[in-house]
Amino acid sequence: MRALVVYESMFGNTRHVAEAIARGLESTGTVTAVPVARAGDEDLSGYDLVMVGGPTHVHGMSRESTRHGAAVTAHKPDSTVALEPDAESEGLREWLDGLPPTHGKAVAFDTRADGPALLTGRASKGIGRKLRRHGFDLVAESESFLVDKESRLEEGEETRAEQWGRTLAQQVTSGRA
User: Fold this and answer.
1) Cα(32)–Cα(28) distance, rounded to whole angstroms?
2) What per-residue string of b and e applies to 80-98 under the rule 16 or more CB within 10 Å gives b?
3) What contacts 72, CB < 8 A, 6 or more positions away?
4) What's the CATH fold of domain 2-174?
5) How far apart are CA 43 and CA 141, in angstroms?
6) How many Å from the N-terminal Cα to the C-terminal Cα in the chain?
7) Are 18 and 165 in contact (CB under 8 A)?
8) What's residue 117's pLDDT?
9) Which residues pair with 127 in a beta bridge?
10) Residue 72 contacts residue 1 (beta carbons within 8 Å)
11) Model confidence pLDDT, tens digit, residues 121-132
């Protein structure tokens, strides 16, 4: 199985989750994990599974204004977070809007604050909608990985992401997804 994991990350949490998912997917094949800023050259039709994830900002996918807000937060003198290298470039929303129609299997994921999804929102809902509009079949429910109030990944979330990747890989290769 060939899998691609495309992610957007502001403070590193979604990158860590994407890398963990990729480790899990490697149990059944070759995996490429790339930040969305470098995903433009990828031919998505060459993959058996495309996984796309990003941080939840203001109840959904990031946009230019929320990425700018993350940069402002990271640059404050008392900030406890560091901005990822590509955080201020175009995000998943723009990348997904520019995709040509295609076919394939896909799954969405996100990182979000620990709380009820009704209150926090979920970027994965919008990601999934855009993937479907471009012709992808969503082969699993989207998944959220949680961050705390200091914007740090909750303990155990990387392990859970790796296990999720392993489970998805087995489902796709066995034809159950």
Assistant:
1) 13
2) ebebbebbbebbbbebbee
3) none
4) Rossmann fold (3.40.50)
5) 24
6) 13
7) no
8) 87
9) none
10) no
11) 999 999 999 999
